[in-house]
Specification:
857 residues; alpha+beta; seven-stranded parallel β-sheet
Length: 857
Amino acid sequence: MSQGNPFSHLPLPFVMGGKPKFRGNGTPDQRTVENRNNRVSHGGYIKRQAAQLSKFWKEKQETRLREQLPEIKTGIPILLEIDPSNDVSFLKNLGFEVISELENGYVIVSNGDTEFATLIKKTEDFINEVSKKCNTPARIYEFHEEDTRLKKILGKQLLSMWGTLKDDEKYEVDVSISCSGNIFEIDQPPEKPDNMSDEEYKNSRKYKNWQQKYFDAYDRWDELKTERELQFERFIKSYGGEFTGSFIDGEVTYLEFCDSFSVRVRVNGKCLRDLIYNFSPIFEVEHVGELSIEKSATDVVIEINQELIIFPPDDDAPIVTVIDSGIQEGHKYIEPAILRDDSRCYVKGTTSVADEVGNGGHGTRVAGAILYPFEIPRLGTYKLPCFIRNARVLDETNGHSIQSSVFPPLTIKAIVKEFAVDSTRKTKIFNHSVAEIRSCEIEHMSPWAAEIDMQSYEHDVLFIQAAGNVYDTTIKELYNEGKSYPKYLFDERSRIANPAQSMQALTVGSITYSNYETEDSISIGGQNEPSAFSRSGAGIWNSVKPDVVEYGGTWVKNKEGNDVRLTTPSNVCPELLRVSPEGAAFSKDAIGTSFSTPKVAYIAAEIQKLFPDSSSLLYRALIAQSARWPIGVNEKFVNAQEIVRHVGYGLPDVIRATQNNDYRITLVTEDTMHISEGQAHIFKIPIPEELYAIGEDYDIRIDVTLSYVAKPRNTRRTIKRYLSTWLDWRCSKIGESIDSFAERIFKTGSSVDDDGNFKWVIGEQSNYGEATDFSRSYSTLQKDWTIVKSNQLTDSFCIAVRGHKGWDANEAARYSLVVSFEAINQDIEIYGMIRNLIELEIDNLEQEIEVEDRLQE
């Protein structure tokens, strides 16, 4: 926390923890009930399907043997439809291995027993109703056709190509393969008795027995992973395929997650078809996409005044790693910030870290936007805000090298290891202005995005990620179809691009600087409106994406004529540094989310100065907390969900992120909080009587942001199964005391109707807040805000953070929480009043802890 700052952020008082009460899951699905009531017919359906699959698979294996195709020992691939309200773990008791859990009750499974002995035995027990525990077959609704399974596995690009694949033509694809078996479907840890301490619980026999099973599961997973990697490698090489994503030629490098692995291969069409139809552990295959990287349209260069004096950053300033096309490190405006000894090149065939992209470069512009987020200074002196590390991943064409030579998630993993793990001066902030040219998939997390999530979990790093750009050719195509701005931003082709759907990345879109119009042309999008190219949400699983926006320019369109012409006059472009022979020039000739993104990285670096020892989760939370919807954006869109879809939480502000004033106060959890499934933490913000007294009606804006991370599991397709533990937050009701709130959280449970009684913009569930398509709980960055009359408050405002069941109860989530109060009309100075109460509250809590410690002694 900054010394001498009279309006610094204050600690958020943690007052109690315990086991939350959750409401039940409701009644069974009606189809399950009907299947129980029709045991003979439903059981007969399952047995017939099993017999047909068994016969079909045996015949297929005989054909493979005759045609001398590679042997497959991974089981029969099947797509099931099951009771969507049930955990998929029941399938293991029916003999199935869960490969991938999809949405709406669809599950990709495999069965290694070609006779389906376990399934048939359980089904016969179900038909005969031998016990009350024999009803699991009722939860299986349907066995789907092979082509339906194919549609669930293939990405949209590859699916569109599927009917035209040629046997001898080569295709480069990213393949994801499950290897958890039923290992991770292990029992939850034993419940801790209320009268037992954490230490006693962890040393109890029941817990130690469970823990040993947990560790044994990881050992078995490692064995299965190795076995499947070898099976897959033999399969690909038998067709003469190549592994193209490795760093070292001749060696296969797999990207490993806790329950799967991914790899990039180049194979012919015959191999690809065989692989997808018959290699049962596969759950996703996608054709390798091109990258979307901006290139400048003109060449207007402004020379820098040589009398300008630039000072290097302070010795202890934050370090931002720029993952891009390299940087002109000798540029006058950049050189004092570059850590030259740390520069690395990840492009095969060269060791150069220079920005070789033509017409002014790309990475140089990105680095410049971090160091000069507001304007390029001409005169006087300027002190650089942070250091820059240069991680070159793109070649001179600004794209294809990373795609054809190195699997992007492996690059991410290597860069984080280099700069956040092995380095003596660790980078917490990574600027990643790189994305694919097409929209991301919204059913399954890509390996690229999942690796960003994994690195964020394992190493506490923050990726500031570009949302991606709608290409000019696509914009013209959309206009020709009759979809003008902003209508075309709702088109699927305008959705955020891979890997911007990452749950942990802070995804940045772009808005327009100012209105621009001449006699012949007009900007697409006015001041503070989404840029013409800025990709929109929602993100995967209907999460809020982009998270925030910054100024990145826009396109200008001709007013007349049938042919759409797009230009970028300097009036609509941000001012950016550029590569030049003298290393001392800038220009206004480039637009894109690549250049809005680094401005947010700058804010993250400023926050790190205040909280150098805090988690990057706090940096992400404070950026979102500072964001507001740009002025005027609500005039372009008719409702809150449309605004959220295009600008997320809004435009962040470095002042709000790092400072307060007499009328605004921000409280934060400086230390990283840890929470497991079945736990809840309550925080209390004391409210001065001058605010909540009867008759007072000050307008108070309340902002709450929860930023958390948990271990990802890539074979699942909902956030609640993708993460080891998932979190949400609830607040006290209007007029509710802390005792009443605590009883509601810990004893009686809560529902959507109990969400504070405040009019939140996002809301705990969709169709509850103003943005009715969205829910806070669908994201790991959960911001919400409301405006209340001060007399609706009580002597305290309370927040509870709750941990819910994910896929691994042994893996706790980490989080940071931020709460702000602001008198929006600046008619009552609340900072000092709340600060005094906070200090008193913390003193009382410390005294209570001291008393408890003495009693325990």
